Amino acid sequence: MTEENMELSRRALLTTAVGSAAAGGAIGTATAQADGSSTTVTVGPGGSLVFEPGTAESLQITPGTTVEFVWDSDNHNIVVESQPDSANWEGHEPIENAGFSYTHTFETLGAYEYFCQPHKTAGMGASIEVVESISTPAPSNVPTVPSSAKTLGVATALAMVATLGLGFFFLKYGGDYDIEE
């Protein structure tokens, strides 16, 4: 093995190690919801007389979020009951059936309340809150990681580092195995 081949081998080893570490780090990343995002509200899911989300708990969004209302059952509409003074949401008053969708982008901060006219007496109403930032309550029942899993993780990391170290050592200081005559 020549000095030039050893250099290429070390470079290849380091490139592979860095690439593997970067790929492993990228697996656990997640993207956060940013302004200008979108969300979906299902109108009459499964034939029930609710807007989901929005009926049980108010849907919280940030300014610039586009909400797509998707009809999942027949004979529904969206009538705006109240909204902030400077808002321009008109809802969608014509009665529509399953498969129809309607979108609106909410820009003005405040509370928007709406209902389905044919099913208002059945309680089919909902609300959307446009807020500066969405508050996420702290979880009450957080699972803990068992000590055995932590130990296994540490042992695995140590084994990977040891393998890379031994690989580097053998590439750098490995012997010449050509038989001399």
Characterize the structure shown.
This protein is α+β, with helices and mostly antiparallel strands. The chain is 29% helix and 27% strand. The protein has two helices and nine strands, in the order αβββββββββα. A five-stranded mixed beta sheet has the order 3-9-8-5-6, with no helix packed on it. Strand 1 (38-43) and strand 2 (51-52) form a beta hairpin. Helix 1 (3-27) packs antiparallel against helix 2. The radius of gyration is 29 Å and the shape is elongated. The model is unreliable at 25-35 (pLDDT under 50).
Give a nutshell description of this structure.
The chain is an alpha+beta fold and 181 residues long. It has helices at 3-27, 147-173; strands spanning 38-43, 51-52, 59-61, 65-71, 76-82, 92-96, 101-106, 110-115, 125-130.
